[in-house]
């Protein structure tokens, strides 16, 4: 199924048989016994989420689980080399703003319904403040966020609303960035 | 969009690419594929080598991980300024110093002057006769008929001019691109939405730092929740009082700046030339630069700005006025008095600049000690309420800008001053990093790092670079060079060297076009008048376009609200779904392109 589509592709063959050395080394270092050195026959290797989440760049990030889920194929956080490369290319300095905004939106969208509704915002807030705000305060912050950012007045933030907010946040390109 | 859809689209995109490639399957294609693969491997190895050689990469990652992007911007700025100085050193050393050293390998030092240790601090004595300063360069056209000729005068002039022009171009370019990227639609305040969704710094990797940031975010959210309707219109008397306080503090700070400048001038118009006493001027200047900003920060207690950002801007502007007025007074003193009094006055000015640079470096180290180390000790052991100090990015960046201004002014008077600057910045990087990690905590407020970056580059351009450039330009254009030393001795002004060269070229037929350009473009006022006029017209047109677009944005926003409030749910779902699928395709393709760009 999935692998056969790529067997005929030259591009991916070049990319996977010769992925950038440093990133491939980081991927392999997570589980040297699982990841082969030679990727020319596209082995189906998937590193479990626990290994990805233990990387020093991710282990203290409050959103590491969501990041791994968004970029992994199976949606559970188990990443192939392809997913790993995708993740770090989106989180690098050179990814375009729109791409970053798209993936940031998906990370904050906990229920995967393409909208940031109130429950998504509440979960984001709890991850960012260690559950130390009271329920009232959480509710008020989420209402304030929706008030400010919801352009089409439907009570939840769509991707366009989010992107519009990102345009007004020039720091976003440098904060949504993981150095590796 | 589900993962199956995503896989499907990816497969389609890659199959399309491979179909295009698999159409020419023959021996030639195989060869070219192998060759291109070899090239890509080679290119990737070179990129890897370049990245490992990239200066301070690991340190900056560590600092960014613990303290965030705001503090990291200081170190990036330092690295950027270091690059300017390295370029300046290479250019000056290559085009000016090396020819001088080839033709006069040993400097002609008068008898009785030898190297004592004090020269490193004062720059005078032994150094004043070497290639360190303007005076150490000869004015002859080097080389005999056998070897090729090298005109030292033209080389000196054009090297300095080319460096300044390139610096100016680099500054304007980075200022413009920074402004475009980061100042878009600057809005009024930090809203809750911004704080929640856009301000989390993903590059912070240290557990303690993450915990601290979460605390800070919680405190900020609580603050913004508890802010009731802001400063409702205060009664007239209150507002008058506020404005009165503002006026008073601004007058006081400007007055202090000008007063310091005047006192520097009057103290030293009777200048002392004994070697150790010459250190007094730079000492006083650096002391003023260290102490007076502390007074300015006291004003914070009595002023009440509505916006904490205005507070930071006010401090920055005051510090800039102070530093630039002192430098301005010093330049005036050098241009007016020193130029008329001493023979070989350019070397004297070069030495004064050298001393200022060294003393500034010593005082930055002192400032680091008092500002960070002692504050840390006091905050943790003596007065617990103060807490661990934060790293003051604004103050440190302004110190860097001041140091770079000195280097730019000194380009003409002391071609090897960039060496000192390079050493200084190198040591400063490690010093600040150690001080930061030992003594400071990450900043409490998620500041607008990007906008501050733009402002710092703007301050670096004007008044720092423009001021240095105007001083060098005034020297070159108007002041008579000294008679007894330097590459321009005997001429009326430095610029006469170009005049003489143009006269020489006039005699050769092949270069008439150069002479024509010189006479009718560079020396004619009409040309500059026309260019300014055209630029003003363009600025006016672009401003009208911008205003039109702002109006359009307002109208479109209103339209979004109107459309969404008047539509039915049925068609919306389908429209929304198809929009999602389409935009999903776009993003998958963007991701593939991004990956192949970054990794190849």
Automatic annotation (TrEMBL), chain A:
The keyword Repeat applies. GO terms for molecular function: calcium ion binding; magnesium ion binding. GO terms for biological process: calcium ion homeostasis. Residues 137-172 form the EF-hand domain. PROSITE patterns: EF_HAND_1, EF_HAND_2. Keywords: Calcium, Magnesium, Metal-binding, Repeat. This is Calcium and integrin binding family member 3. The gene is CIB3.
Automatic annotation (TrEMBL), chain B:
GO terms for cellular component: plasma membrane. Belongs to the TMC family. Residues 344-450 form the TMC domain. It is found in: Membrane. Keywords: Membrane, Transmembrane, Transmembrane helix. It comes from the Eukaryota. Signal peptide: none annotated. One of its GO terms (molecular function) is mechanosensitive monoatomic ion channel activity. The chain crosses the membrane at residues 80-102, 154-173, 243-268, 280-299, 311-335, 406-431, 452-477, 526-542. The gene is TMC5. This is Transmembrane channel-like protein. InterPro entries: TMC (IPR038900), TMC_dom (IPR012496). It is a multi-pass membrane protein. It comes from Oncorhynchus kisutch (Coho salmon).
């Amino acid at each position: 199924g999935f692998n056969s589509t790529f067997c005929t592709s030259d591009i991916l063959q070049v990319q996977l048989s010769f992925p950038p050395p440093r990133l491939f080394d980081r991927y392999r270092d997570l589980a040297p016994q699982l990841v082969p050195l030679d990727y020319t026959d596209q082995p189906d290797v998937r590193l479990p989420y626990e290994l990805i989440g233990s990387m020093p760049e991710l282990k203290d990030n409050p959103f590491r689980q969501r990041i791994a889920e968004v970029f992994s194929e199976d949606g559970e956080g188990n990443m192939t080399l392809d997913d790993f490369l995708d993740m770090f290319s989106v989180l690098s300095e050179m990814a375009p703003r729109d791409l970053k905004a798209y993936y940031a939106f998906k990370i904050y969208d906990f229920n995967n319904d393409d909208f940031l509704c109130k429950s998504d915002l509440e979960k984001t807030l709890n991850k960012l403040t260690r559950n130390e705000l009271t329920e009232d305060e959480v509710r008020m912050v989420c209402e304030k966020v929706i008030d400010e950012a919801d352009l089409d007045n439907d009570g939840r933030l769509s991707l366009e609303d989010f992107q519009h907010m990102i345009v007004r946040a020039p720091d976003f390109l440098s904060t949504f960035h993981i150095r590796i | 969009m589900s993962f199956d859809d995503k896989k499907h689209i990816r497969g389609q995109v890659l199959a399309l690419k491979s179909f295009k490639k698999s159409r020419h399957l023959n021996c030639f294609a195989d060869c070219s594929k192998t060759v291109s693969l070899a090239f890509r491997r080679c290119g990737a190895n070179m990129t890897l080598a370049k990245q490992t050689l990239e200066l301070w990469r690991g340190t900056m990652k560590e600092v960014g991980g613990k303290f965030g992007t705001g503090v990291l911007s200081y170190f990036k700025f330092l690295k950027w300024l270091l690059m300017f100085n390295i370029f300046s050193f290479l250019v000056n050393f290559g085009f000016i110093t090396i020819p001088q050293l080839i033709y006069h390998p040993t400097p002609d030092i008068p008898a009785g002057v030898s190297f004592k240790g004090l020269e490193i601090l004062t720059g005078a004595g032994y150094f004043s006769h070497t290639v360190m300063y303007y005076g150490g360069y000869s004015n002859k056209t080097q080389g005999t008929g056998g070897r090729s000729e090298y005109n030292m005068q033209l080389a000196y002039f054009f090297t300095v001019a080319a460096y300044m022009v390139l610096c100016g171009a680099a500054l304007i370019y980075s200022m413009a691109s920074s402004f475009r990227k980061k100042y878009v639609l600057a809005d009024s305040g930090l809203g809750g939405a911004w704080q929640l969704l856009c301000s989390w710094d993903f590059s912070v990797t240290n557990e303690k730092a993450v915990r601290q940031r979460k605390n800070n975010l919680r405190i900020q959210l609580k603050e913004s929740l508890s802010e009731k309707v802001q400063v409702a219109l205060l009664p007239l008397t209150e507002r008058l009082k506020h404005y009165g306080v503002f006026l008073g503090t601004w007058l006081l700070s400007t007055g202090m700046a000008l007063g310091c400048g005047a006192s520097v001038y009057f103290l030293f118009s009777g200048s002392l030339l004994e070697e150790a006493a010459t250190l007094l001027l730079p000492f006083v200047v650096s002391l003023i630069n260290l102490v007076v900003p502390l007074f300015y920060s006291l004003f914070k207690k009595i002023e009440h700005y509505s916006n904490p950002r205005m507070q930071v801007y006010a401090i920055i502007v005051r510090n800039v006025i102070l530093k630039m007025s002192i430098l301005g007074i010093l330049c005036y003193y050098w241009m007016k008095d020193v130029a008329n009094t001493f023979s070989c006055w350019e070397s004297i000015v070069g030495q004064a600049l050298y001393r200022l640079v060294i003393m500034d470096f010593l005082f930055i180290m002192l400032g680091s000690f008092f500002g960070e180390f002692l504050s840390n000790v006091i905050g943790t052991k003596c007065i617990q309420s103060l807490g661990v100090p934060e790293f003051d990015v604004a103050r440190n960046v302004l110190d860097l800008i001041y140091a770079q201004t000195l280097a730019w002014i000194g380009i003409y008077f002391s071609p090897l001053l960039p060496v000192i600057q390079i050493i200084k910045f190198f040591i400063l990087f490690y010093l600040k990093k150690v001080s930061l990690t030992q003594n400071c905590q990450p900043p409490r407020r998620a500041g607008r790092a990007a906008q501050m970056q733009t402002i710092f580059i703007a301050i670096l351009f004007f008044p720092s670079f423009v001021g240095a450039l105007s001083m060098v330009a005034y020297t070159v254009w108007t002041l008579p060079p000294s008679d007894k030393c330097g590459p321009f001795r005997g001429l009326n002004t430095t610029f006469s060297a170009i005049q003489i060269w143009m006269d020489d070229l006039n005699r050769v037929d092949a270069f008439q076009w150069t002479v024509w350009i010189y006479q009718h473009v560079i020396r004619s006022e009409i040309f500059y008048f026309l260019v300014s006029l055209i630029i003003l017209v363009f600025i006016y047109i672009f401003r009208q376009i911008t205003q039109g677009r702002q109006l359009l944005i307002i109208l479109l926003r209103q339209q979004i609200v109107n459309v969404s409030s008047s539509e039915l749910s049925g068609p919306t779902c389908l429209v929304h779904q198809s929009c999602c699928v389409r935009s999903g395709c776009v993003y998958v393709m963007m991701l593939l392109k991004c990956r192949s760009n970054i990794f190849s």
